[in-house]
Give the backbone structure.
Amino acid sequence: MMTIVTHVHLKDGAGRDWDAAMRTRLSAARKRSGWVGGQLLRPADKPDRRAIVGTWRKPRELGGMAP
């Protein structure tokens, strides 16, 4: 398996739109072969930061989903 963790620093005021776009992207990943699961994380003390955790069975199954 391969797990990828991506850290993001958002522009001021972009949080809601960015979160919605990432939920859509994670939902699309569920339909892909090899997808194990993912999480969108937001620290309580840093509202402009996010972390995305995505796990795939094999690196080659990432396709165009890697950030």
